[in-house]
Sequence to fold (742 residues):
Amino acid sequence: MATLLSIQDLHATVDGAEVLKGVNLTVNAGEVHAIMGPNGSGKSTLVNVLSGNPQYQVTGGSVEFGGRDLLAMLPEERARDGVFLAFQYPVELPGVRNWQFLKSAVDAVRKHRGQDELSIRQFDRIYEAKLKLVEIDAELMKRSVNEGFSGGEKKRNEMLQLLLLEPRLALLDETDSGLDIDALRVVAGAVNGYRGGDNAIVLVTHYQRLLDYIVPDFIHVLYDGRMVLSGGRELALELEAKGYDWVKEAVAAGR
Amino acid sequence: MTQQRVISRTSEDEVASEYKWGFETDIEADIAPKGLNEGIVRLISGKKNEPAWLLEWRLRAYRHWLSLGEHQPTWPMLDYPQIDYQDSHYYAAPASYKNQPNSLEEVDPELLAAFDKLGIPLAEREKLAGVAVDAVFDSVSVHTTFKDTLDKLGIIFCSFSEAAQKHPDLVKKYLGSVVPYTDNFYATLNSAVFSDGSFAYIPKGVKCPVPLMTYFRINAADTGQFERTLIIADEGASVSYLEGCTAPMRKSHQLHAAVVELIALDDAEIKYSTLQNWFPGDKEGRGGVFNFVTKRGKCAGRNSKISWTQVETGSAITWKYPSCILQGDNSVGEFYSVALVNNRQQADTGTKMIHIGKNTRSTIISKGISAGHGNGTYRGQVKIMPGAKNARNFTRCDSLLIGDQCGAHTVPYIEVRNPTARVEHEASTSKVSDDQLFYCLQRGISEEDARHMIINGFCRSIFQELPFEFAVEASQLLKVSLEGAVG
Fold:
């Protein structure tokens, strides 16, 4: 299988504090990786660093994405090249119509791929089909981006973008947080619909509940800025049952 | 020789060397000597062949202006030098310009580039650039058919000078009825020496079928330093009036003091939209137009409505408060504004809503954008008079800061003298946040497009009030005006 993402000894800081302390991870096309871990272990930092959020500083290591040096790319270049971050807290853009925002994004990505911008009619046809998959009311397209959206609407709007942009790598940052069971099912349905042999998913979550719906190939535990444990589906159940204390103790004993 | 007086927002050399106060000396014919005195006022009136009462009115204004002792108002949050009012010419016939370019090939390429960016139709470019052509092809025929339509409906739309000749009764009745010549320093100056402007009268019950100025705006280019506009909507009439253009306008003067008066009688409605993009000066604040405007509408009749919408991005100094006197019962006043300052621009702008009649309502939505070293102030007054039973006002002032060297200020004055009034005021100050930018970047949108999108979103509620073509131009204008502004 082709390696899509290769992270080597990645170090990163936020406001001067080191949060990632040497992360290693390899993701092949077609795989789903779930990253779990206690609060403050660096999960959100990892996906933000990968997508190029300027609030995080990379201080060491390397990341290859599809053979390219990801860390040398600007955030918008990474996005156009197929790195997608589903935000934990989708940002509000007052006055910016959701329709316009989504079309601009789709056109930017298409342009990068050497495709023409979509006509209004073409875009309407494409998003209308996807709206049904994420069960979003068409009214939401006319409203300002995320402004006044419920928590569930915001997350479903993120999934709509995932489906529209068709990235090679989807980074899902606690997409399940704040969702009721129905919304969770919708979000998981969108992710599973997107999931395919050519792309990969790295999802960050606190709860194994999401993994009942999106079944990962690998589960990793990130603790104190490092991947300390990896396993299959069963690891999530073990963590659910036993918590993280035993992981922490094992790490402490190993030092 | 290339046109020297063409003012474009990017040619800095020209600003430093060529752009000066008042007229340039290469205009020989038909120009009054520098300075302001009674003789000049008489000369202006005489050149325009004005009736005696109008000259008398000008002279009264002039004498009042003298009594003010050249004391510019000091209350605005604006920093500009005392202007030497004797160092300007107050009359020149526009036809006497020498050195006009003969074709677009002779026009400053920077200006042409600006036209491109703004998407100004080719037919309008020559006129805007001050090219000396007798007729601008397309607009002549449009002009004629358009004029026929208006004539059939009894709508009068002409220059102020023409109105003074042909419709003296209307002019005499309404001139100064909303902005008296004693109103303020600049209005007084304008009343004495106004050059020309527009006049419109919409007769009883007539709904003007097209926005006035849409087709005429090119003809309004460079109407002069002291414009005077008077618009009357008779009972049950309605009109939408558009002023200005997104093109960087060629203006021959640095000091502009215009007066606009609107009168709406019973059940009448006037919508007045402005795009102002005069030369703002260069990055260091050299040059640029000083724009001191008095705009006021009177809702004289019952159920009348006056709505002001403005997008102000030009001028070095903007001093402007389009206001409504809500005299008629149930009358409505609205003010929608986007004011942008970049580089060293300064704007002190807002509105006054004076509630006199019962059940009068007013809405104020102001969006200020400050970038570079720009300084923007919203100054607004809401006054509820004792007789204004059940008056309502809603005010919202939002400021957006770009960068950390600019300023935004909000100065509301609220005076309520009737206990049944309801007055609401909301205000906010925000920045284009890093989170918003990153969200857009993460979707593949470029930083420039992202900023433009966010700033446009900030202004959306105002752009919605503009006629469609104007709204598209306004959005593009913001983009051009903010080029180089770093967050």
Observations:
- The radius of gyration of chain A is 18 Å.
- Chain A has a mean pLDDT of 93.
- Chain A touches chain B at residues 51-55, 74-76, 79-80, 84-85, 87, 90-97, 100-101, 104-105, 108-109, 112, 144, 161, 165 (CB under 8 Å).
